[in-house]
Amino acid sequence: MSDKAAAMLSRSEASPPARWTARSNVSPARIGLLALTTAVLIFLPFVVTGYVLYIANLLLVFVVLCLGLHLVIGETGQFALAHAAFYGIGIYTSGLAGNAFGWPFPMSMLLAGLIAGAVGVVIGAVALCMRDIYLALATFAFGEALQWVFLNWDKVTGGPNGLRISPARLGTLEILSDKQAYPVVAITTLLMLLLTILISRSRLGRSFRAVRESEVAAMAMGIPVRRAKVTAFGLSAFYAGVAGSMFATFSTYIHPDSLGFQTTILVLTMVVVGGLGSIAGAVGGAVVFGLISEFLRQTPSYQEIIYGLILIVFMMYAPRGLFAFIHDKAGRVFRG
Amino acid sequence: MTLEVAFLFLQQGVASGLIIGSVYALLALAIVVIFKTSEVPNFSQGEMVMAAAYIALYLLVFRSLPLWIVMPATILLAFAGAALFRRLILNQVARANGSPVNLVIATLGLSYVLRGFVRQTGFGDTPRSFPPVIEPESILIGQASVTTLDLVILATAIIVMAAFFWMFKYTKIGRAMRAVGMNPKAAQLVGVDLTRIHMIVWGLSGAISAVAALLISPKVLMTADMGSIVTLGFAAAIVGGFTSLPGAVVGGFLIGIIENLVGLFVASRAIVLAPFLAIMLVLVIRPQGLFGGRVEIKKV
Amino acid sequence: MKCTATRIFWGAALLAAGLAHASSAGAQEPGLTEKTIKIGMFSPLSGANMAYGLDVVNAAKMYYNKINKDGGVHGRQIELVIEDDRCNANDLVSAVKKLVEQDQVFMLNGGSCSAAAVAAKDYVVRSKIPWVMLNASADGALYPPTDYIFGAFSISQYAVGGSVVDFGKQHLKAKKIGYINHDDAYGAWNLEAAQETAKQLGVELAVESINANITDVTAPLIKLRAANPDTIAITTYAKPAALIIKKAYELGITKPIVLTVTGTANLSQLVENVGSKDALKNFYVQDVLADVPGGPKIKWVYDMYKESYPDLAAKPDHPQAYMPYGIAPAMSVVKALTDAGPNPTREKVAEVLRNQKFDSGVMAGPIEFGPNDRAAQESTIYLKFDGSQQTLIPGSFKSLWKYKG
Questions:
Q1: Which of A47, B40, C50, C255 is least surrounded, with the fewest CB atoms within 10 Å of its CB?
Q2: Using an 8 Å Cβ cutoff, are B122 and C317 in contact?
Q3: Which chains have 3+ CB pairs within 8 A of B?
Q4: Number of structural domains in chain C
């Protein structure tokens, strides 16, 4: 048994198993909280400036990116590090579909997700026999190679000139501001979030987690391990593609510079710091880290050091993520 | 392209590839030795090289110390810094018992801190260099043009690698490291002090980074972002098999040669793509890299 | 027992709390009072590209301070709001949106990174805000021309590439030029102009495009040597440029080498990095300042810097090489505000800018906009550099690239 497997096992013993087991009962309180969340999201555009809505849009894009990475890393335990590439496929697909054919955005969004998902399935199938670090670095290499393609396929992506994205449209409606884009982005995020919760509670989600905990045991239980892995890859890429398309609804320009490993690492950091393996962690990590990053913009000269220290301190003292940390501390206070 | 030109290109590509490849090999070695014993891909390896280069710059140029003091001083400082990071930071992260990826994120944090710190000194923006270990003079090997400095880099890299292999294979501490790499629990049972071994491993990795920094800074120039060169070290490590030390060395030379040949025979703009294609190609054909051990299946 | 939904709720609450900075109501013409006018600046103030922005902002800031001390513009003191754009598209757009919607600035004066700056183009044009860039070339935002965006105060990349080919042909009598550029936006723009100019002048180009992170430049140079050009033009950044010049010397390439302004930031450091003055025996640099750094024509800029930022000036490598580039954009803003009269509107200022022409005394050529021209500065000078001395080469060398719109 490897060190890693040992660490994973000890982790699953230590943490409350309830977090991963599917629940069939949905309590009224929970529905109420979800409704409140929705209400906050609905209320937001009426009280804040366009700048804040832009930040909100961007954060929500990262929420969906994190949900996607959560599915493949958090749920299935497969270290896929090509997320920015799938995100890029989503942006370019929906940008090009809009520019060239004037497609309505729901259609290009679906197309973006499907194309990214299809590429994800192919990559997943190719990477089936790789594990751990090999998988991580193979997908890393794929991501970097794809960024190179974005930069050098001038005819399609505009290459180093970047690509101007024409406004997203639906019928006669054109999205020209962050305020207009916000409902689209927020609703899409909520849908993706619901989808994640559903997947997580379904048979599929259970098979993902079984693969994460032990492939051998999963196989012994009759779970189609290969199919589960490829599905997780495809789903994760689908999320990234949709996130890219969301980005294209409120952005007017994309340059390959922002589609490199940096972005993948940022998403990974969000997922891990939020709390690997939990949906709330993925969402919370994206929101909290997005905000930290935006606030750090105000302290220019020290921000790299501060950011680095935040990562280190979190890993030292909040190893199970932000939310588990708050939960533990709060629990201790209440218990006296 | 005439046959004659193609032959010249081939010679130059292999010669230049071996030289730059020896540096990639050193970096790959530093990455692999840590991964072998603690399963952490060290994302701050590049910044360790960068920091060592700046330590050398400071001592050599601003403190005007002679090279024979600067070289061991830099290597020692890098050893101590890396070992302390393992002892003070990563030990706590490991004890906190989160997911294994937490260790990776902590090394990522270190890379930000080091870069930010060097930028604070004000020396991080303009590309710099310090006097090389010897004055480069061009010489021809066949039709390939290399410099004396290049040959020194290659020779030093090979010596360091050889010393490292010897240590790993024949010394007590090297055997302990291998034992930890194979099975940490069992190693602990037979009396190996895990904390100490991890510290030494990180220290060695830091020292190798310092050697790489001393060799290449005059050749590739230093900025606060020079750590990105480690991407090629990772490429070398993965092509070689990531857990194999000889694999890392062969991978380094391979990546160096591939880069040069792609630049010469395909296009200059494809140079950056070459290592990634090499990674994908190797892993698709042999999922554990060229020299990696058998793929192990996690058992319950 | 916390459950998923609870956590999501707390996440959302955090989101709302973090974002619900109150929005301030806008006046008739934003950022304008009887006594003040608010200008939004943005540039990389952190990270890898800080050298392109930090001191450029400082230069503009000290110029604005001087104007304020002299009584301001039409009695209004200039107020600056400065944001870090990290040289990255998403952060730049969020800086711009914050300045416009939250800080309610009257106009924008920012941008040092070309590809990132282009990302704000559509938003600025839709919001109808005059935007005078700092030292970004950002040709992608200048062509096709818009009513509100003005840039290339250091130099348009289209001028960089075309002019260096003209210099090679005229001064160095080259029939074939080896041309090394980057594979990024900068490189694409200067190569386009170089190719157009070469075509018109009947010069052959041998092009090698390299990545800015390249560690081994042997391959492109061996290929160039095989192509046997009469001169080599390098339009890369400082680090690859030093590597190329050094390697060319090691490979025994003795042809003249011309380095464009993209890589000339710190020439004394370049000499150290190349390692030998012999490598610079036949070496020329392109520049866009009116004088060599610290030279008599622009000495006042360096003096003002030392006076304004004594602490920074004491640090190594300060002022950063691009510092003087911040002066001309600030001059342009002040001049436009002056010319727009005591009751400026954004429209009026944009209109004035579209026909602006003045000599900054800092840059090599005049700052000049026109009907189809939003690139401020298109002149370059050439200097022969032997490792210590720079000698000006007489003559004017122009890009023949024209915007076809």
A1: A47
A2: yes
A3: A, C
A4: 2
Residue A130 domain boundaries: 48-258
Residue A33: per-residue pLDDT: 65
Report the candidate in A281, A314, A239 with the shortest Cα–Cα distance to residue A83: A239
Across the interface, of B218, B223, B267, the residue whose CB is closest to C239 is B223
- H or E stretch including A112? helix A105-126
Domain assignment present for residue C25? The answer is no
Tell me, yes or no, whether C332 lies in a domain: yes
Q: What is the mean pLDDT of residues A30-49?
A: 79
Decide if A294 is inside a domain.
no
Tokens read off for C384: 């022969």
CA C139 to CA C363: how far, in whole Å?
18
Highest mean pLDDT among A128-142, B115-129, C296-310: C296-310
In this model, does residue A23 exceed pLDDT 70? no
Burial of residue B194 (CB within 10 Å: 0-12, 13-18, 19+) is middle
- Answer whether residue C398 is part of any domain: no
Interface contact A134-B283, CB threshold 8 A: yes
Residue C44 lies in a domain: yes
Length of chain C: 405
Given a cut of 80, whether residue A22 has pLDDT beyond it is no
Residues of chain C with pLDDT below 70 are 1-27
C386/chain B closest Cα distance in angstroms? 19
Interface touch B260/C218, C-beta < 8 Å: yes
pLDDT digits (tens, 9 = 90+) for B87-100: 999 999 988 877 88
* Mean pLDDT, residues A182-208: 94
Q: Which has the closest alpha carbon to C112: C129, C137, C131?
A: C137
**Are A84 and A148 in contact, with CB atoms under 8 Å apart?**
no
**Number of Cβ within a 10 Å radius of residue B32:** 29
Nearest to A143 by CA among A205, A236, A208: A236
Average of per-residue pLDDT values in chain B: 90
Tell me the CA end-to-end span of chain B in Å, nearest whole number: 58
Of A18, A36, A49, the CB nearest to C23: A49
Is the pLDDT reported for residue A284 higher than 80?
yes
Contact B111 A308 (CB under 8 A): yes
**Cβ of residue C278 closer than 8 Å to a chain B Cβ:** no
- C116: which 2 tokens? 């990132």
| Beta-strand relationship, C176-182 and C231-234 | parallel
Q: Which residues of A touch B288 (CB under 8 A)?
A: 134
ipTM above 0.95, yes or no: no
Among C85, C149, C141, CA closest to C114:
C141
Cβ proximity of B8 and B14 under 8 Å: no
Query: What CATH number should be reported for the domain holding residue C112?
Result: 3.40.50.2300
Do C246 and C386 belong to one domain? yes
B222: phi then psi, degrees, rounded to nearest 5:
-115, 140
Q: Across residues A308-331, what is the average pLDDT?
A: 85
How many angstroms from the chain centroid is the CA of residue C55? Answer: 12
Does the beta-carbon distance from B256 to C216 stay under 8 Å? yes
DSSP C82-118: EEE-TT-HHHHHHHHHIIIIIS--SEEE----HHHHH
Decide if A255 and C15 are in contact by the 8 Å CB cutoff: no
Is the domain spanning B3-285 CATH 1.10.3470? The answer is yes
pLDDT of A335: 55
- Contact (CB, 8 A) for C166 and C397: yes
Question: Are C119 and A253 an interchain contact pair (Cβ–Cβ within 8 Å)?
Answer: yes
